[in-house]
Write a structure and sequence with these properties.
The chain is of the alpha+beta class. The protein has two domains: about 80 residues; about 170 residues, Beta Barrel (Thrombin, subunit H), CATH 2.40.10.340. Helices cover about 35% and strands about 25% of the residues. The strands form two sheets. Strands 1-2-5-4-3-12 form a six-stranded antiparallel barrel. A six-stranded antiparallel barrel has the order 6-7-8-11-10-9. Helix 1 crosses helix 2. The longest helix is centred in the first third of the chain and has 78 residues. The radius of gyration is 44 Å and the shape is elongated. The protein starts with a helix and ends in a 12-residue tail after the last strand. The C terminus is likely disordered.
């Protein structure tokens, strides 16, 4: 059995050598053995074609995987670049907001030369979508002091670059509570910018959830129309004169048709307050008084 196997191997080797020799000789253009080359090549042609097709597919597959890896690498690189750009944009937005805050503070300092300007961040607010009462991170630690329960709030109006926010109503060591002009307990003495007529702007429970105020005590001779600007009068309620409060959006008559009142849209958006400026009167003598804990 072993001998027979060895004989088959020997014959296979001899046959392979002969075929290679014949192919080599017959491949010459003037060889007389070309007929023999044809006899060999014709049967092997389908095999050669099959091998060629398989080889081509293998090469295509290898090329696909190489291309996929390159694309994956490029995608990873692009994602990394996008993340880096997003970080830079976020940083630029932050710096822009900081620059705007500083510009606003400089402008407010120019507007209110009789006041020291203290920037503060909103750190808490009462329940609801609108800021009618909220807390800022400015307290006794930054020079906000109490000169008596009934008088200290008048020294500390709260504003933004757009207009009046409200006033401080209580302080603690590291924070203060602010009542805005849309709170029902707020009243501000104001004037109509175009004719300098006195009116009062009050918070209203009915209008608070819309972020609006009511304008009352309108004299019968006062010309008041939608679009008119209202500003603080400075008439003894602790607010400096000339702070923009808002614009009239509607003028109405009372049910008995005897009084005129109006609806005011504040200049400040009380849904999105983040930073405010506290005005500390230069007449504040710094007496700390009692401080809420």
């Amino acid at each position: 059995m072993l001998r027979l196997f060895k004989n088959k191997i020997f014959l296979l080797v001899i046959s392979t050598v002969l075929i290679l020799v014949i192919i080599g000789v017959s491949s010459r253009g003037n060889s007389k053995l070309n007929w023999l080359n044809n006899i060999i090549n014709v049967p092997l042609a389908p095999v050669e074609k099959g091998i060629s097709v398989i080889t081509s597919k293998i090469e295509d597959s290898m090329s696909y995987f190489k291309s996929k890896k390159r694309i994956d690498d490029e995608n990873k690189a692009l994602k990394a670049e996008i993340e880096e750009l997003e970080k830079k944009i976020t940083r630029m937005d932050y710096l822009e907001s900081q620059n705007k805050e500083m510009r606003d503070m400089l402008n407010i300092r120019d507007w209110y030369r009789d006041y020291s300007v203290i920037g503060g961040n909103v750190i808490a607010k009462d329940a609801g979508n609108w800021f009618d009462v909220f807390t800022v991170d400015v307290g006794q630690n930054k020079g906000i002091s109490s000169n008596g329960e009934d008088s200290f709030s008048g020294y500390y109006p709260v504003v933004t670059s757009k207009g009046l926010v409200g006033r401080i109503i209580s302080i603690s060591a590291f924070s203060s509570k602010v009542r805005t002009i849309i709170d029902e307990d707020s009243t501000v003495s104001c004037i109509v910018t175009k004719n300098r007529q006195y009116v009062d702007v009050k918070g209203s429970m009915e209008l608070r959830d819309q972020g609006l105020c009511i304008v009352e005590n309108i004299d019968t001779n006062t010309d008041l129309s939608p679009g008119d600007t209202i500003e603080t009068s400075g008439a003894g309620d602790g607010y400096p004169k000339g702070i923009i409060v808002g614009k009239v959006i509607e003028v109405k008559k009372s049910q008995d048709d005897l009084k005129t009142y109006a609806i005011l849209k504040p200049a400040v958006d009380f849904r999105s307050l983040e930073t405010v400026f506290i005005l500390k009167s230069n007449s504040d003598n710094g007496d700390t008084g009692s401080v809420e804990e």
